[in-house]
Amino acid sequence: MATGKIEDRSIRLGRRLTLFRDYATVLLVENNWDQEYIVRQWNVAGNHLGDHVVRNCHFLSITSRCRICHVIRECKSYGCRHLLCARCVTGYLEENINAGALNLVCPVQHCEKMMCPAVFKSDVSIAVRNLFQRNLNRSFLLAHPDEEFSYITAAYDFCLGKKWYILAFVVLVVLFFKGPRASMNLNLNFIL
C-alpha cells in the first residue's frame, strides 16, 4: 500500500536528516520523492532545502492572541513560532487541500514555513483528512510508476473516503433481507 511506503520513506529520511517525519514528507513531496537527491543537497553548504522547514519545532497549545484574526482564543503552533486559532486555520487548510495542495505554508503573511501535517490533520474534517492522504498517495504513485498498482490499495483508498456510506448500505441490505425484526437482533459490535 502506498501509505505504508510513504511512511517508511518519511521515517528513513527523517532519521537521516534528523527531522520530524512530517517535514521529511514535505521535502519528499517538494523533490519528487527523490530521497538520495535530498540527502545529497542537504549536505551541501548553502542549500535551500531547509528554508521552509523548521528543524526544532515546538508545538504549543495555549490561550493567546491569534496572529490572523487577533482575537484571544485557544491557539496552537503548526510548526513555526506563530500561534493560530483553529477557526482561522481550518478554512485555509480545507480550501487548499480541496484544491490539491500537499505542502501548506503558514498563513501568516511573510512566513513561508511549512505547516506540520500531523498537527493540522486534527483541525480538518475526516473527509478532508482522507482527501489529503489520497492526494499524498497519488503524488507518490505518480513519482514512482514502477510501483505495482494494487486494486486492493485502490479499493482501500476509495472506501476510506466512503466508509460511512458503505456502512449505511450494509445495514440497509441486512435490514432489507432480514426484515423488520432484524433491526432488533442486529449486532454491530464487529464495527466497533
TrEMBL record:
InterPro entries linked: Znf_RING/FYVE/PHD, Znf_RING_CS
Source species, domain of life: Eukaryota
Transmembrane segments: 164-180
Coiled coil: none
Keyword terms, alphabetized: Membrane, Metal-binding, Transmembrane, Transmembrane helix, Zinc, Zinc-finger
Recorded GO MF terms: zinc ion binding
Protein name as annotated: RING-type domain-containing protein
